[in-house]
Batch of 2 targets.
Target 1
Amino acid sequence: MSRTPERSPEPVREHPAVAKVAAALTAAGLTASVEGIRFLPQAARTAVQAADALGIGVGAIANSLVFRMTTADGGAEPLLVLTSGAHRADTAILATLTGASRVGRADPDFVRAHTGQVIGGVAPVGHPARITTLVDDALRAYDTVWAAAGHPNTVFPTTFDGLVALTGGRAATVSTVATDATDSRTGRSAPR
């Protein structure tokens, strides 16, 4: 009779996407971010859920939003927008900032193909290839910002400057990236 192997008490720690994020943070010299990776007891698929799990304001959550950019030649490329959890990105403005003919919502398959991660746990790094990235300047207001670490149950701490350096992102002002705030009464926010 064969025995069922014991499960790891926290299988998320061994998740390949989390390992890739940790490796990218290590390569960037962000040891404190690697050491600060937190494994949440429940999935935090929105900025509000992540903020609640950490006991912090939603604005300090760096949402990793992946969009589908349509290029002038009709091709499709990913666009990663790191917004404060208190804001929503405006796709028309994102198209203007990137020079894309259109920026729209990406479906789960597109997100996974370009990041290797699932919606709700997309990290700013750890992707198969570098993605064009914009970083919401509103994140600069926080000494520490938290981003997903490749799985819906994981987050890591960093800084605004750390996010920009880590992703090669362009800092964009709030007025050019975001147009409205998350409704704190309903908790409605975009997936991170």
Note: The CA atoms of residues 18 and 130 lie 17 Å apart.
Target 2
Amino acid sequence: MTNAELAERVSLSSSACLRRLQRLEAEGILTGYSAQVDPQAVGLGLQAFVRVRLSKHESVAVERFAEQVNGWDEVVACYALTGDMDYLMHIYVTDLEHFSRFVLDRLLNATGVADVNSSFVLRTVKRSAALPLTQLER
């Protein structure tokens, strides 16, 4: 939405609204802006969550794995976890063949990977980039 639309929605003048946005950006609260793209519309028909366990947990092995993950376009998010698996990766690929190539050629050959467990998304029930900010309400 435009600054004027946002200002009207929050009952501020356009200039006051812009100053507040600039302050939130400067303070690092607003970290960027993005467009939401429909994965199906751009040929990414298969979505998966992949859990990964590493064989070693020394800092060098963990850093090397993280470097590799950051180079894989298919991975849109990767989280270090507690529990029996070390990482959870969110992956978008074109199809099962693409997923198979990704797992066999990249993931299983990555430094220190001991185990991989995958789940395919059948249907998206909720998808949002919005944070639950109700604790900020007065």
Note: The chain has a mean pLDDT of 94.
